[in-house]
Amino acid sequence: SDISILSLQIRFILLQNRQGKTRLAKYYVPLEESEKHKVEYEVHRLVVNRDSKFTNFVEFRTHKVIYRRYAGLFFSLCVDITDNELAYLECIHLFVEILDHFFSNVCELDLVFNFHKVYLILDEFILAGELQETSKRAIIERMSELEKLE
Amino acid sequence: MNSIFSGTRLRDMIRSIRACKTAAEERGVVRKECADIRASINENDPHDRHRNLAKLMFIHMLGYPTHFGQMECLKLIASPGFPEKRIGYLGLMLLLDERQEVLMLVTNSLKQDLNHTNQYVVGLALCALGNICSAEMARDLAPEVERLIQFRDPNIRKKAALCSTRIVRKVPDLAENFINAASSLLKEKHHGVLITGVQLCYELCTINDEALEYFRKKCTEGLIKTLKDITNSAYQPEYDVAGITDPFLHIRLLKLLRVLGHGDADASDLMTDILAQVATKTESNKNAGNAVLYECVETIMAIEDTSSLRVLAINILGRFLSNRDNNIRYVALNMLMKAIAFDDQAVQRHRVTILECVKDPDASIRKRALELVSLLVNENNVKQLTKELIDYLEISDEDFKEDLSAKICSIVEKFSLEKIWYIDQMLKVLSEAGKFVKDDVWHALIVVISNASELHGYTVRALYKAVLTYSEQETLVRVAIWCIGEYGDLLVNNVGMLGIEDPITVTESDAVDVVEDAITRHNSDMTTKAMALVALLKLSSRFPSISERIKDTIVKQKGSLLLEMQQRAIEFNSIVDRHKNIRSSLVERMPVLDEATFNVRRAGSLPASVSTMAKPSVSIPNGVAAAPLVDLLDLGSDDIMAAPSSSGADFLQDLLGVDLGSSSVQSGATPGPKAGADLLMDILSIGTPSPAQNNTSSVDLLSTAGINNNPSNALDTLSSPALPHIATTASAGGMFDLLDGLTPSPSKEATNGPAYPPIVAYESSTLKIEFTFSKSSGNPQETNVQATFINLSPNTFTYFIFQAAVPKFLQLHLDPASSNTLPASGNITQNLRVTNSQHGKKSLVMRMRIGYKVNGKDVLEEGQINNFPRGL
């Protein structure tokens, strides 16, 4: 049986609003700036038009994108075609919960004016395209430790 | 970053950018800010560096270039303070990636920071390294990172573990160094460290066989225990998601166990209990639980066989199919397609649910379900499944009808048990979705009908009834017309009634009504109308009592604005009018169409040319198709030249008199002969092949022979090769004269003539590439290249990709390759199309690059191909 056992990781994470503005873009694979812009454009087009009755997974080039919309923001993860979609949906949800806690009822503007903090939070959650911590409490605690150092 | 200075100024900039109403305005603001930042950078004041970089990062996120800020990142990273380092590393990760040379300059700072006394600084360095390091940096700093895996602080251990994951991805050779450290992580209690440790081990196992062996032997039991503990653990609020303690950890553990169990019976054996436990105990009412179950199913499928576990797994998938959440249904369908390979029986049990999914509102679920259903069809269930699918066809969405009808047709054709069942199903599909049915499908139907002589009566009656109700389905109408034309006499006389049929009364007039409708209906296309005319000709012979009426209809078409109709009408009218004596033989029942040949031709798009034609018979008795059947078939195929995608179906088109696709005036690149007129001429073996232009008026073919009222003379004259050539519409090229044995006009295949010799485009010690060439007809600038890649080494190449670049005067199109895996001493092929706008002046030239993985390493080979044959 040929189950392909591949190196699986997240390739990039995008937060985009309905107009296609990128609020966060983290790439775990190397891409040229122009390629990144193309990717962001394509992903936005893919997810923004999908009816809510469709699945949260969409094929993207040779990979797939798992996405979910929270209010006006689309959270998209690009992963390997064979990877567990449902797991990444949980991943997205956990990230949103962390943001929500950290910013107390997060809204898009919070993410705009505090973009650097959003990256810091992300970097405590995911590293090298893999999960670093699964406890929301642990991440929030870590963030407050770090804030004290500023 | 929270100091009053930078906070305010950064916020101000963000505000003013957001206040811009147009893109131009925004560009203006950004330009000014960048100018300020540049000036500040030049002053080299460390005070503002922090804020400047923050602003640059925001500007970068808007999509503007910010290269000039890269050095600032380096300076900040080299600063002593934590806030500076922090923003410096953040900027580094955002503004740079591993391919940039500038990154190398950071290596030293990284090394120092990895050894820093402040563990938060160590964390920063590990994070940056883990996210963007290059292979070189990975190699340089690996020892540091390895050491940090066993650091006292769990935050550092986590980061070091994941950083190591990246390192071994970049430099697989280093994998061995991390085995021990990684295995120690598996004993951790801290969830974060544990999950990162599991991920590191997974990575090591996939890239290094020794690591795999090691972990399999030493760690499998420990991992199973860990999974057991966490599955059975009490409620832990910190990690709980929908009643499951740390589903992420569950999933990662299951993934690792999958790798360890795959291909190893002992390891697989050890895990069956825990897998069964997870499979049966996990709550599946929320996504988290289902995510775990999904991973569990994947693992069960991947490890060595225990059929009871597999059945369990497939049952889980079956339950997923009924889940309200369409995400769950989707993943279940995907997995079931893989599962069929293992256990068709188990999947069969869920056939009903899968069939329900064909009706799902979500299009991607419908598609997958349809795929799956077609994989499940066998002789036992085909009738039931077909019925269900056809029932659904009636109510399905328009945009799904095409896929669905195509699938039904392919299932019906593949499993066609009895001819009558096949015909019945096809008629239903044509009635519901005829307009989506492709040509080769309804051609095949006609072939089958023609071969089922005992069903001719039944079929024509069924078609008649159907077409009364579904007259807007074009393909149905065409098939009906053909059958009514052929078997009209059976229709009106209720010949060959089967026990299941109710008698119907169809008069000759009724039958002709149907055919006439097809001509006069405004939305009929050319093919249908032309076929209808042919049918009328046949009926004029079969229904002598209303021959006058039919003649009137034909005559009316003489004034048709469509040239094809006009011509046919004139010629047929002439036959009806003046040549009644041979008419009946002309339109005698068609000989049975040869199924075998048709299938062969259809299966492999045959090159249309047949190199030798059948020897003609000199004497032609009475115009009947005296030539053996195979001649007729060869006839048809020889005449087909134009479309590169010609298939065997084209010959059938000719026999049906339908090929009206192109009315190209050029000779040599012409489609088959048109219409009944040409067909008649073929049967009679008259007419000279002449690639003539659309010359003289559509002359009555028989009257050119100068025959007046002497029928028998007509035949004699017909057999003379001295007949002036007959005007046809442009397709004259390809007309045959069986008598003279003239060769057909050169087919397009012949234009391939000046053979361009194949070349060895590239050769190294590991790889050889050969190109073979062919030209497509009609466009000398276009060349089709088939590239063959040959693996000369004893190792398998994976992720094989061929890339090519050409100068501006060439256009290149690449088809997907036959495969991305090139086994040792094996080969794969890929088709290319090159269009040379300087054909004749400049030769082809190409730069190419090949990328592949061998033994975990990435390999790149490049070259330039200068030895294309001239004249391409």
Automatic annotation (TrEMBL), chain A:
Keywords: Cell membrane, Coated pit, Endocytosis, Membrane, Protein transport, Transport. It is a peripheral membrane protein. The keyword Protein transport applies. Transmembrane segments: none annotated. It is found in: Cell membrane; Membrane, Coated pit. Residues 9-149 form the AP complex mu/sigma subunit domain. InterPro entries: AP_complex_ssu (IPR016635), AP_mu_sigma_su (IPR022775), APS2 (IPR027156), Longin-like_dom_sf (IPR011012). Its main location: membrane. The keyword Transport applies. Belongs to the adaptor complexes small subunit family. This is AP complex subunit sigma. It comes from Brassica napus.
Automatic annotation (TrEMBL), chain B:
GO terms for cellular component: AP-1 adaptor complex. PROSITE patterns: GAE. InterPro entries: Adaptor_Complx_Large_Subunit, AP1_complex_gsu, ARM-like, ARM-type_fold, Clathrin/coatomer_adapt-like_N, Clathrin_a/b/g-adaptin_app_Ig, Clathrin_app_Ig-like_sf, GAE_dom. GO terms for molecular function: clathrin adaptor activity. Pfam families: Adaptin_N, Alpha_adaptinC2. One of its GO terms (biological process) is Golgi to vacuole transport. Residues 754-869 form the GAE domain. Transmembrane segments: none annotated. It is a peripheral membrane protein. Its main location: membrane. Belongs to the adaptor complexes large subunit family. Subunit of clathrin-associated adaptor protein complex 1 that plays a role in protein sorting at the trans-Golgi network and early endosomes (TGN/EE). The AP complexes mediate both the recruitment of clathrin to membranes and the recognition of sorting signals within the cytosolic tails of transmembrane cargo molecules. This is AP-1 complex subunit gamma.
